[in-house]
Amino acid sequence: MAAIASVAVWRPRTGSAAGLHGGGGAGEEDPRAAGWESAVWSSQFGGEPQSVGYVIETAGLEGLRRFGSKLAADPEWLALVAEWASAREPAADLLRNQVSVELPVA
Fold first, then answer.
1. pTM
2. Which has the closest alpha carbon to 4: 106, 103, 105?
3. Is the distance from CB of 88 to CB of 48 less than 8 angstroms?
4. Among 41, 74, 78, 86, fewest CB within 10 Å belongs to which?
5. Which residues touch 39 (CB under 8 Å, ≥6 apart)?
6. Do 95 and 54 touch, CB atoms closer than 8 A?
């Protein structure tokens, strides 16, 4: 089965970039502890410059479903999402959220 990557790209607001670079937040260890690959990328130019991309890679659709179910039941993650959604001055703006499927290379 092809790998599935869930990608969320955020643009930090002025003065809040440090908290978005994987420096230890709620839910950060969930992907690694459950066996999923995770990475944090920073765009330097082109596309969405100065943005931060969070990538969670699973082994297929079933892995993506399990990951989504785990987040939906995690009170720490839900509290973080609620905090960000209710903030008058959020730390970042969501630019893009996507799911990508690995293509086989012939």
1. 0.72
2. 103
3. no
4. 86
5. 54, 55, 57
6. no
